[in-house]
Structures are given as C-alpha cells and as structure tokens.
Amino acid sequence: MPYRVKEADFRLYAASVLDGLPDEFRRRMENVVVVVEDFPSVEDAESAGIPREELLGLFHGVSRIEDEWWGGAPDRLPERIVLYKRNIEDVCSTKEELVEEIRLTVLHEIGHYFGLSEEEIERYEDG
User: Fold this and answer.
1) What is the pLDDT of residue 11?
2) What torsion, rounded to 10 degrees, do the Cα atoms 96, 97, 99, 105 define?
3) pTM of the model
4) 42: helix, coil or strand?
5) What is the spatial distance between Cα 65 and Cα 81, in angstroms, rounded to a whole number?
6) Distance between CA 75 and CA 99 in Å, rounded?
7) What domains does the chain contain, in order, with CATH numbers?
C-alpha cells in the first residue's frame, strides 16, 4: 500500500534531507533548486531511460564538472533536481521508508549534479 502524505509534508521531509546532506555537498552546491512534481513527463522518463512509473527523481542541467570545464555561465537559470512525489510514495509503506527514499533519491540526483559515477553515488547512498 503506498504511503501518501500531503505535498507540504513531503516538501518538509525533502527540506530536512537537504539540511542533512554531507557538508562536502552543501558547501559546493550552487545555482540548484529542488522541486516536487507528482509524476515525470513522458519525455523526461524517456530521456532517463526509465519507465515513467519507476522514475523517482531526475537532475536537469549541467553537472558541476561540465560547468567548470566550460567556464560556467553566471546568468543561466538554476539547475533542477525534481522529486516525483507519487512515484516515491508508491514504493513506500511507512513514513520512515518515505523519508529514506527521499534521502536516497536526493543523494542520487545530487550525485549527477556533481558529475559522480553511479558507483560513487552508491557509496554516498549507503552512507
């Protein structure tokens, strides 16, 4: 049974996760926002190569490595990390599971923001 919460509560859990990120991430995050949407678009799921109902989060933008390589563009819009609320809720049955899945999803997408490999991301997710 999916664990459903109000959007405001979901956002509070996500904010708490962001506050608890490792210092090495928080100090270096610039020009990135985290947003909550119910479901991914068909296009976003296709670009991620993941079925729409299984996609929990997605990083939209230029990784820090690419940004540093290209010299950055100070006037561009922020990079975005999107959390897909309904899909995350669908894989959770308790509040504890929900908060942990939000944490894992945020860490995974922040890993993409920093240009980390899947193996490097997994080390942070394991914790």
Assistant:
1) 97
2) 160
3) 0.88
4) helix
5) 16
6) 34
7) 7-126 (3.30.2010.20)
